[in-house]
Queue: 3 jobs
Job 1
Amino acid sequence: MGIESQGMVLAAATKEKEPTVELVQIPEEARVGERVSFAGFESTPPDTPFISNSKLKKLLKDLHVDNEGVAVYKDSAITTSAGVCRSNLKGGVLQ
């Protein structure tokens, strides 16, 4: 549509047949447009902002909400400079 998107929305969902879905909550103090990070993983901006569907599917299988309500990648909390990202859907999956 002529407008480049450089953002992404992360939602949590329950594992039920008819899942409950909600947006992952970021700390209120987080800066607009801030990149999230994962402890133990170093990241550099990609040459292209787009990710292929096959890479995205591979990433999604390791994203979930732990039993404390923290959004995680593998076993690392998804964080901003203001703290961790959370969901009320404990034990859910991230999409």
Job 2
Amino acid sequence: MKLSADAILFGLGLMRKAAVSPAELAEHFRAVSAGVPAGADQLVALEERILDRSPQLESVVSRVAAEPGFVPLDCPGCGARLRARPEEVRLELCCPLCHEAVVAGRKLQFLDQQPSGALRAAEKGTPYSLGTTRPWSVPTGQRLAHFELIRPVGRGGAGRVYEARNLKTGRTVALKVLDFRPLESSAAAFGRLQREARAASSIVHDNIVRVYDLGVAEGLSFIEMEFVAGASLREHVRREGALPAQEACRLCVEALSGLARVHQERIVHGDVKPDNILIDEKGRARLTDFGLSRLLEETTSLSASHKIVGSPHFMAPEQWRGEAVSIQTDIYAMGLVLYYALTSRLPYEGESLVALMYKHLHEPLLEQGGTYALPDYLVEVIRRATEKAPEQRFESAEEFAVALPGGTG
């Protein structure tokens, strides 16, 4: 597949500024041209691949990204990254996700999940609206059931998150409005998960984002959670780069403490990743989105359509094989999270899902005898946590935490 002219110009601009070598650029070009579907925004894919490899290049990438002729736009409502031609900047552009007015941004924001349709519309010069929302999305300023939506605060692979007010309880919450409708044939599964969510609401822990409720209103599925102000671990690493060993271990010990508490209730997270670990205003790690991957799997037709349920870069071998998840599934993902925090690099990369799956199934993350820019004791901890066979990993989150500095016995 041929690269778009924008992607080529962007890559050459980075090479001119000595941000990437010719060999590195060629590698990025090969990966993007092989892995991005036709019609998708290759420039966005190239930007994000480079930033995943080298987060410290964010300021350079921000400057170069505007050079091909597009002005970077930041949505003040949901933080979506958009682009427009210079002559369009004075128009009253609106974000396709939250309908907020969009103004030219001083700094390009790099987010993981961005709708390629909005970016393509921006490139075509669509005035006033940079794209269309999904038919089941909820604009800001409205109500959903007994929730007053205050403002959008983020978007993940499964849906949009709003700061909202529960009009029954009066509390401010995070309301995740999911991008799917529950299937009627899965009503029993949805009901069971709803009961589990309400049972989990009794779990109060410093390192867990509390879940209050899970339900359906006006044809939309939602999860009501405790509102936590702060950035995700992925955002933190992208901003700071590879974390010092002491900080990375502290955050992972705290996340493992939250995991251990939930595992006591026989609940498996199933989608542990840097995006699902929030760092609150006190600097504590807080786990969120418990059970969401299982909810997607059991109440939608995603599995039937052969789509991946979970986050491919942090999925355990048994998830790739379609087997049941367990505590050890979360242990594996936490081992990959620790690696990411220490290195700012994704644990595995592949030009396709098949290539990524092969690596998770067959290639050790840190091979024996290799030389790594990590303390030896952490190399051993990560190796054990990410063993391919679940029974060879740590038996529990507590055991994993004890193996790290700051863990308690």
Job 3
Amino acid sequence: MQRPLSAIILGIIGLLASPSPAALEAKAYIDRAVALIEADQHTLARTYLEPALIDYRLNAGERSRAYYLRGYSFFSQGLYVSARKDYYRALEFLPDNPVVLSSLGHLYFEGLGIAKDQPLAVELFRKAADAGYAPASMRLGFAYLTGSGAEQDTPEARSWLEQAAADGSTTAMRQLGLSYRAPLADPPDPGTARQWYERAWEAGDAEALSHIGFMIEAGELEPADEPARSYFERAAEAGSGLAQTKLAHLYLSGEDMPQDVEKARELFTAAADQGHAGGYLGLAYLYESGTGVTANPQSALQWYQRAAEAGSWDAQLRLAYLKLQGGDLQSHREATRWLAQAAASGIPKALNDYAWLLATSRFDEVRDGSRAVELAERAAESSRTPVYLDTLAAAYADTGNFEKALAIQREAIGLVAAEDPDLTAELNEHLAAFEAGEPWRE
């Protein structure tokens, strides 16, 4: 089971010198702030930290802890720039503070309040992990497992994840389960993957059962002892937002069970109440389509916004499409922002759609042909489909390279299936513009 916040925060104390008697009042303020942070009263917590931060009697370790706590309170409210500043102040007083190093690395890894720099994040995680801080070991293992900021290395990932798992990190246990599945393991070892998921479940991680359900659904565990749905149901009852979202989709589609739109809405709502992006996205769809509820475009937009902010690339794309319906410059700018976030996931569709806007927007302030070429090339490398090639051709046309654009567009047209005359007509329309030496504009 994951350690509570108090264990993580108070775990720094062993690194610090004992407070002087004269500093006990400031220490009492800090302890009160810890209690308020655990109660999610972050703004009030910062009022208690203010007098402690300026108390000259605090030693370096105590002051580092106080700045970290204030930074954590900012982070918890999504105020990432302020969190970053306080984390750096904390390191000024205790440069090797592993909790702060790991927390700062998380900001760089995700690009929160600062330009994303995953290689730097990996180095910060390594310093904290070398000091024995388990959450940093988990993050470092994840970086190696996914090849984010470091060369993908499954054995190295397992080494760090096992250290974090030994400290009780159920997230690390789940990541270890993933490491024994394709494509990360060659050959896959589904039995060992399942063992790690079961360990996470036994340690109190409801989401772990969901992953066993997905393995059964994908045919990775044969023969299966139970239907996949039973694992999703048990995980959902235990509070897994992932399982609740999965079950909601099954009820919505009527797949392997009677269709029950009201039950689907209840499950999406339960997942949303836990802050799960899939719950937000499901509710957005219901309100946009009027499925089981009265259609409400404004409510749909609000749920898409929450899902996008929670990191769902699906929602980020959908929100971008809705913004583009506005048709004005501000709408295109907002769409660009969401498409950029979606493209950061590396999903080919997100790369393609972002490239298309950068190549074809009628607003000069939005277009960036060179960036569009880069993104479209990445999408086309994953799958050389007519649509992705069409985007790549439009990107080259925007840079003035019509020779390249024409060659790629003709290749795209040659790949269109005979039963799709509408797409052929659309691509030929773009081709005619390129033949006339004109870029395509939406």
